[in-house]
From TrEMBL:
SUPFAM superfamilies: NAD(P)-binding Rossmann-fold domains (SSF51735). This is NAD-dependent epimerase/dehydratase family protein. Residues 4-231 form the NAD-dependent epimerase/dehydratase domain. Keywords: NAD. The keyword tRNA processing does not apply. Pfam families: Epimerase. It comes from Rhizobium glycinendophyticum.
Amino acid sequence: MRYFITGTAGFIGFHLARRLLAEGHEVTGFDGVTPYYNVKLKHMRHAALAQYPAFTPVIAMLEDRAALEEAVAKANPEIIVHLAAQAGVRYSIENPQSYLSSNVQGSWNIIDLAERHKVKHLMLASTSSIYGASPTVPFHETDRTDEPLTIYAATKKSMELIAHSHAHLHKTPTTAFRFFTVYGPWGRPDMALFKFVDRILNDQPIEIYGEGQMSRDFTYVEDLVEAIIRLSHVAPDESNRVADERVETLSRQAPFRVVNIGGGQPENLLDFVDIVEKAIGRPAKRQMLPMQQGDVPRTFASPALLQALTGYTPSTRLEEGVKAFVEWYIEARPELG
Ligand SMILES: NC(=O)c1ccc[n+]([C@@H]2O[C@H](COP(=O)([O-])OP(=O)(O)OC[C@H]3O[C@@H](n4cnc5c(N)ncnc54)[C@H](O)[C@@H]3O)[C@@H](O)[C@H]2O)c1
């Protein structure tokens, strides 16, 4: 199959592209290599993908409509997976503009081009952040999601809404998946696991927000990739409507569906720190801090719809995934600078 993936120099896009290339698919990877975090890591990811002859990298911004259009036309993809975004909850308080530009304007460009090039399935990365501070757990895709706490979440919700209206008008089969705290080797330097491991190895204190009373439904990146690939074969259509109406989100107005990708096994932040310490074999200096603006107290996925559609639920144990991250990080550290 021919895939067009945005965000291949990023954490998740890299893993998805690598798996597809290893399986013999053609992948065009579109990424602006933005300086939001260490670009060396982004270049390392693309260099690893370049070992596959079926990988075509394109370095450009989503907002550059002409460059995006040219890349999509050349790739002639059957499936588009849109992962490029300005990610990060906290940075969206400092720099909301980049979220509006990448996640709304940039996403619009890819949604519109997917239709013009008649792709079989458009897949868009959304986030658990759009559930906000909802006290009702687990989070079901059918829950209300109109009280986002950050501009990051608001832009992702906007993307979902724009994609729905576009799928209604033009019938492009579209799946928006909501990811839950993805982690693993080649992970993001702005996320807790990377920061904790880096600081513990450098004998520096780690900052624990919410006095440790937060919990997250962590998803191991390879489980996430497995779920994306399985979902890619289930383009939203009446023929695959799930019988249980409490979980199904397939629109009555459009070939559009929202799906959580998470295992439904939330972990308390302090237990997570224990697991990180064990994997490194060294205790952390813990600095307890209050919750930060925009933080949500918990995330907790209902995996019921994903399971019904694909027969799959992420299940890698946190101990195992954290260990894999630590091993990668220790090896990659000298090169990361
Ligand atoms: N990692 C998680 O836990 C998580 C959770 C929920 C949702 N998501 C979503 O999953 C997707 C992938 O996340 P990730 O963790 O791989 O993030 P990442 O930051 O590692 O990757 C995103 C990539 O997009 C590129 N990019 C950003 N803005 C761009 C633009 N305007 N034009 C072109 N390229 C641009 C960046 O250079 C980067 O390489 C994002 O859409 C993110 O919002 C991630």
